[in-house]
């Protein structure tokens, strides 16, 4: 049986990379809200925990600003 590479990357890391690349590519543009949590979970088929970890990393990278009880905004 041929050996295939196994992707050993956490789901939250994969989601972070997709969101980061989108933000750096200008979609969504700076100042606009990031897609809502429940919509990201549904769109990517991930858990809320994975989504929150990905957004937390975006915040640590200063790509988004998280307002508790409000929207998450994309930063410039």
Task: Describe the 3D structure.
It is a single chain. The chain is mainly alpha-helical and 76 residues long. The chain is built from 3 helices and 2 strands, in the order H-H-H-E-E. It has a single domain, classed as Orthogonal Bundle (Arc Repressor Mutant, subunit A). It has a two-stranded antiparallel ribbon. It is elongated. The chain starts with 10 loop residues before the first helix and ends with a strand.
Condensed summary:
The chain is mostly helical. The chain has helices at 11-24, 37-44, 48-60; strands at 64-66, 72-74.
The number of distinct structural domains comes to 1
Q: Could you say what the CATH topology is called?
A: Arc Repressor Mutant, subunit A
Q: Specify the CATH class.
A: Mainly Alpha
Average pLDDT number: 91
The CATH homologous superfamily is named Winged helix-like DNA-binding domain superfamily/Winged helix DNA-binding domain
Largest pleated sheet = 2 strands, antiparallel
The strand line-up of the biggest sheet is 1-2
How big a fraction of the residues is strand? 5-15%
Helix content: 40-55%
Poorly predicted residue ranges: none
Number of strands: 2
Write the element-wise H/E pattern from the N-terminal end onward: HHHEE
CATH architecture: Orthogonal Bundle
Rg (C-alpha, Å): 14 Å
| Overall 3D shape | elongated
CA-to-CA gap between the ends?
49 Å
Estimated structural class: mainly alpha
């Amino acid at each position: 049986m041929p050996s295939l590479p196994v992707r050993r990357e956490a789901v939250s890391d994969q989601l972070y990379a997709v969101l980061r690349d989108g933000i750096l590519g200008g979609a969504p543009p700076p100042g606009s809200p990031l897609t809502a949590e429940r919509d990201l979970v549904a769109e990517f088929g991930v858990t809320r925990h994975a989504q929150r970890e990905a957004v937390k990393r975006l915040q640590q990278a200063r790509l988004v600003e998280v307002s508790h009880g409000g929207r998450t905004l994309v930063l410039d």
